[in-house]
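Retro notes
What went well: the complex prediction finally ran end to end.
Inputs used:
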Amino acid sequence: MRPGDVIQTKRDRGELSPGQIHAFVSAAASLEGSGWKTYHLTALLMAIYLNDMTPGETAHLTRAMANSGKYLDLSDIDGPKIDKHSTGGVGDKTSLIVGPLAAACGVVVPMMSGRGLGHSGGTLDKLESIPGFNVHLTEAEFRTALKNVGLGMIGQTADIAPADKMLYALRDVTATVESIPLITASILSKKLSEGTSGLVMDVKSGVGAFMKSRERSHELAQSIVKVGTANGLKVIALITAMDTPLGDAVGNSLEVVESIETLNGNGPKDLTELSVTLAARMVRLAFGGTDADADAQVRRALSSGAGLEVFRKCVEQQGGDPRVIDDYTLLPATNVAVHVNTDCTGYITTIDAEKVGVAVRMLGGGRSRAEDTIDPAVGIIVRAKPGERVTPSDSVFEVHYRDGAKLAAAMPMLAKAFQIDDTPPSELPLILEEIA
Ligand code: URA
């Protein structure tokens, strides 16, 4: 099968056969001897981006990408295995809260997460700001974590869906990330491989998300639920607002502090509510029953401190310093902060999540390219959220920076990231829709 013929099929809006999809994915997993070159892969990715895929093609692509590597068999570990995954946002640290809460309720949580890229943050980067925390566990260590703690938080290993590793890296540099079939296959191939039996998806929607419009978010959520279910996964998708950063903290170390505060019962309302809802859906997928029962169980795990204890054990199990839970001075910090203040009186109407995410990246807290290194200590605390009344010289952002030149570059972005009006904005729901 000539790569050019496969590309031509999709270029001309045709449907790729299972054989054509298999050839493409095999080449992505191992180019050598495949007859494919990187330029064939990227041309086909662009053709898929532009001309889409049918649900049948997306299902084949997902399965082929999962089959490109190994499957973890977690059947020897007692208990229902349920993961949670977000399509990515700004200030989205729910994994650090949801995983421990669900595990405290008896769910086994094999969580395979990603790194931050562009304006959005990543769970692995947040966890790595805890001194010693190892996200590269061997399979044996991952199993031990799941057995001992009920929670393991790791990155994609070399033998899980290797085709996705290659394709994701190419998409990232060829403007082909925001494709519904490609995102569906990328996320679900990893979830099918990691040995989970259920998945709660948090599909972000809004200016700070991959999917900016509600319609596209709905399409993506439906695609993930359909393809996941067809492949034997139990899937619930929530579409949640990502116009404003979630919680107050944006930046890796600062987000760890906010996650611990939330597990201590002192978290911001939006972050706490979304985390409880996501964990409750995991509990319901695991054990059945009603949403109300699952919600009550998760709230007990939060108020009793059981979730926080799971997080402490998780940090310890994965080589991190568990003393950070009680002593935030052990986390990376810049020890210098400046404020971005208002110059008028009124109500905050917008805090633009994407601009805040870009500003954190400019401070050194995120990546422009996958190989960039990041500074875990820098970040932003949002001091005034939409709906709050402010007067001149009130602080909107507290900016934790290390490098004066980077601060100077980020400040204009932050000045544009908020708007003030005489009338308060109408309160918008955080959870927009649920698809199961
Ligand atoms: N997360 C993934 O793992 N893959 C995508 O394509 C987008 C978000």
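What we learned: The chain has a mean pLDDT of 96.
What to try next: split runs per interface for comparison.
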